[in-house]
Amino acid sequence: MSWFGQACIFLCLGASLFGMAAACLRRLQIARGVVYLNFFLMTFANLGMIYALVTNDFSVSYVAQVGAKETPRIFAAVSLWSSLEGSILFWGWVLSVYSALCAYCYRGRFSEWMPWVLFTLLAIAAFFFLVLAFPANPFHLVSPAPENGPGPNPLLQNHWLMALHPPMLYLGYVGMSVPFAFAVASVVAGRLEQSWVAITRKWFLIAWMFLSTAIVLGAWWSYAVLGWGGYWAWDPVENASFMPWLTGTAFLHSIMVEERRGMLKIWNLGLIIITFLLTILGTFLTRSGVLDSVHSFTESEIGHYFLAAIVVALAVSAALLIWKADRLKSGGKLDSIWSRESAFLFNNLLFVCFCFVVLLGTLYPLIVEAVRGVKITVGEPFFNQMTTPLALLILLLMAVGVLLPWGKGDSKLLLKKTAVPLLLLPPVLAWAYHSGIQKPLVLAAVGAACFSFSIMKIEMVRVFLREKRLFSLNPRRYGGFVVHTGILLIVLGVAISKNYQEERQVTLKPGETFEMGSYQIKLGRLFGNPKPQRFEVIAFTALFKNGKPLKFLEPKLNFYPMNREPIGSPAVYSSWKEDFYLTLMAFEHKDFQATLRVMRTPAVSWIWTGGGIIILGVLIAIGMKKEETVA
Asked: Most buried of the four, 262, 519, 582, 589, by CB within 10 Å?
């Protein structure tokens, strides 16, 4: 298996270089064949690694690093992406899938662009195959092979989300490569009309959907696994996935301006380049070990490779934009500040500022350490203070942008359309204040979200009454409304849950009861439960609400042979209104006492629901074909 895997990787590296040369010479059939070959070779390599992990082939270096006989087979299989070498191998496979799909979908079409599209995709692939072949080779032969291994990181083998979150993240990251390749091809080929935007819109939407799903699943994993009761802490690796989402969201809005008004051409090219580079930066931050993070499971020497790749890609992209600068001038112009394109432009500026703040807070500790040799941290207060005003402004623009027309607008017409939502705002805020939401910034978030939501729903009704049909002739409009609804729900969930979480710590003996608000918990018993890969200590508790039984909760501490400290698994009772969160902090053998952290957090489930609504909105936008009509 070791020799088989290495042969696949080196063949992919050589084939990619050969395919790049063929693409430069416009030998499109050869380049396309190389893309297909890479897909098959990477599929075989990944299946081979999964087989080695499942069968505990410790002669393979990656298996010796993350495998263990005691690990359940499902976690053994998904440990493919639990550490550096395996995750890069999986990344290479995902890239080969996207490249093969792109080559197949556009066979016989776009002959001027496709050589450069395939050249770019093969160049990206060649970089990852180079990393796989040398500094991050997962197929090195280990001789003599050890009898057993340490197993994957304990945090990655005690929840099913481990099987979903990393693949979704890679599908989002790698999916940005196809729009980036078309952008590069359009500049090199000198075809700078809007076609590349139209071609890549669905590719970008799909990648953006996967990235959005990954961010929500990552927050859910943090909430359900780490036991601290939160889901987002502005951790550097969390930020690494959030930054390309921000610039990608800006890109999705600005391409509409280019399609309708022929504006922002160079801006859109810059946004797609920055988004792609941020995905590479995110991989560098996650997998190079330069950052201290609960999500960063690897320390390695690949940082120099990724930094070189970022510098080269940035330099080449900038050179291309400078080369074609005279042809990138936009034909349209802003006719009025009260226009939709003006709203989208301000929207873009806010998203880019948001991304810059996150980037600054993430990289500043690295810069200080490199310059002064001092380790510092940029904590949650900085990010909250800097990003909250930007988020509120984005929410308001989300509402206003829907009402503004393309071209010349009218402030009086805008005020007329916002009359009903503005009338609805005072009773909504009064109800929120009466419900206990009394912090000014949270009330502002609730007001902005409800204002935006009411405007979108009124606009949907207007479109329905005008067109006399359930779905508009432009499905992107409805998809956008649904996506915005999901984002508003997430914003409300974050604003309320972050500011109104209630926490206590209590020590109970069997039979004792603790009360928090309308909830009561009763400790039943404390017992041990041996598993093949760990030993569990479980606190069996009963949860009541106003004296009525709700659910049995079993928070636990997991003891792994290779870890000195136990790892907790919280138990959660979730409802639409709030979550009741229970973590076993410590226990005492003698009296069978359990020390529990008890939390009550409102509106957490709104975040997960909002993520599902976003997926639905994207599927509506890309799944429905716009009908052709004759004016």
From this structure: 582
Question: H or E stretch including 192?
Answer: none
pLDDT in tens, 347-378: 999 999 999 999 999 999 888 887 888 888 88
Residue 379 has pLDDT above 70, yes or no: yes
Collapsing DSSP to helix, strand or coil, 505 comes out as: strand
Non-local (6+) Cβ contacts of 442 within 8 A are 495, 496, 499, 500
Contact 557, 571 (CB under 8 A): no
Sheet holding 578-588, edge to edge: 502-508, 593-602, 578-588, 571-574
Q: Across-strand partners of 170?
A: none
Task: Reduce the secondary structure of 313-352 to three states and give it as a string.
Answer: HHHHHHHHHHHCHHHCCCCCCCCCCCCHHHHHHHHHHHHH
Residue 364 burial (C-beta neighbours within 10 Å; 0-12, 13-18, 19+): middle
Task: List C-alpha distances in Å: 601 to 105, 320, 494, 496.
Answer: 47, 50, 11, 9
Could you give the CA distance from residue 588 to residue 131 in angstroms, rounded to a whole number?
49
Output Rg (C-alpha) for the chain, integer angstroms: 26
Look up residue 269 and give its amino acid. L
Preceding peptide of 144 cis, ω within 30°: yes
- Enumerate the domain spans of the chain: 2-286+301-328+343-352, 502-605
Q: How far is CA 458 from the centre of its chain?
A: 31
Listed residue (107, 101, 98, 126) closest to 28, CA to CA: 107
The Cα diameter of the chain in Å comes to: 83
Q: What percent of the chain has pLDDT over 90?
A: 63
